[in-house]
Amino acid sequence: MKISMFHLMPHRELPADFEKKYDSVWVDLPWSELADAGRVGQYYNWTLDELVYADQMGMDGVCVNEHHQNAYGFMPSPNLMGSVLARQTKNAALVQMGSTLPATNPPQRVAEEYAMLDCISGGRLVAGMPLGSSPDINFCFGIPPLEQRERFREAHDLIIQAWTRKDVFSFNGKYSQLRYVNTWPKPIQTPHPPVWVPGSGSLSTWDFTAKHDYCYCYLSYFGNNLAKKVLDGFWERMDQLGKDRNPYRTGFLQLVVVSETDASAEREYAEHIKYFYDKSLHIAPWFFFAPGHIDYKSLVRSTKTTLDAINKLAEERKNWKYKDYVDNQFVIGGSPQSVADQLEEATRKLRIGNLMVLLHIGSMSHELTKKNINLFAKEVLPKVHDIWDDEGWENHWWPKKLLKQPAVAAKR
Amino acid sequence: MATTVTQKELKVKAFNDLIETHVALAGSGPPVVFLHGAGGLTWDPFLDDLAAKFTVYAPYHPGTAGDPDAVRQLRGLWDLVLYYYELFDKLGLRSPAVVGHSFGGMVAAELAATNPDRVSKLVLLCPIGLWRDDHPVQDWMGMKPENLYKLVFYEPEGPLAKQMTALPTETDAKHDAIIKMTWALATTGTFVWPIPDKGLNRRMHRITAPALIVWGKHDRLVPPIYAQEFASRLKKSQIAMIDKAAHVPQLEQRQQVSKLVADFLRG
User: Fold this and answer.
1) Which of the four pLDDT bands, split at 50, 70 and 90, describes residue A409?
2) Interchain proximity A296–B183, CB inside 8 Å
């Protein structure tokens, strides 16, 4: 299994009454009341240091993503972070999860910047191609929700052609009309870097990733129990489409906190987990899904099958304590052995080959984050690294040059 | 809302037959086209009043009845306008009067501006379509529902507001209502996202149809100051500001507005 550290780069010091005072952590949150540029510079540097440390400690990859106008995670340009990481990391894959295609105009910019990252890092890029969230794409960046998926697909086609075609070509799209596409540079990896597509469980994204043989990543903060239903659906769909059950075909994000013992984990991380779910995820429902952000079929399905459950869960969650988050597997936490056991069960249950772990959560300090990374990399990673090895699958969705390296952290 | 008039529903193909439009039809007399707002079409007592004196054609915006993806055949506002001309042709309407509410008001004005021969009279009920930085049209697609009701209704707690916003208690019906409303906002919103100013300002001078502009004095979604913005760009227009009404004056002060509209259309 490949295990990468994911970072959101959140605001780490929101006030105690934040969620009472403000309607939404995203879109219309006033910067001037809540943030200070000098302090935020510190957050960026901590974030970069933490990801570089993850590389040094032997994590397989480092993940950054793109979000706008919020205190939940504000790397508006994942590729600026990626360019620092391309220089400062040595062995980790750069998992850019990534530039949001519908909001990058013209989309060759993604092809160019990703190719730059691949060149600078010597072929270590994983090219995430996200559709982008509704708050970002629709509310912050003004793209009509009904156009979002179509723009995504068109941008994807353009980027792949920009990387793989040897000729100078014209691209006559609905959203991008380009007379001369002649991307410089091209990526090192051929025919192009592995593509990961993050999704939230919609059928059309499963079909898209299957069609192109990409890695489908289910990014959820609600843990592996709830993800089971989604990923069971994913694997059934792969069966129907005649795709194999290669676990590396999927990725999953899990919140993980490690300490010396289960008790000390609770002591150290409880407040940060509460902060994350109460403050970082304090997203106004009216900014979460603009009408049309999900297509009609998915709208019907999600309204009829999950809407009431989600509302009910949101109500219940208000009173949750650390133990509830761990018991319900939103967070995997505890001693190294207990985290390794839970992770193994979760990854086998979901059939995940590319695991992303959120090791900085909400208000965690730089020091505590380093401790979490250290314990995870030293004591958990070696226990779960070889989970799929006995099945003999090849990971087609990982930079080839990194597959040849010894996989176990302890060897480095 | 109890309605009294019997409606028929037509299904008409237009735009190179790519879009099958559902059209609610009722009444007799001269033709009037009613274009609904962003929330979708509900046949209401105001339409009953209109149908008592006119033949009312109320098309469902593409995607809000029949094939939900029909709207994707239209690439933008220009296509939407051409589609409506073809729909008018199929309905045998050369130059009907057009009444439009909110989003439908903007579409009505666009129809009258692009080809002024296709609209004989124009009734604009709190239309969107213009923009002032100092009085922004509020974001009806990104707002807490309770806050939206306060902008839209003169009496947000009153019986009309309750009737128009209450969800069914039965689960399936409730889900259907949420889906219907969400998709109506999606399919209309795609023509005006994220700011409902798509150039009508530069086209309105072409409109020749006499226009009646109706606004609730307490409209906080599209502030009444826009009544003057519309009137100042039209050759022949009159403004009716309605007391004790906000963004749905035709239902909040139905008798008054129905009479105003009927008198204008017959005059």
Assistant:
1) very low
2) yes
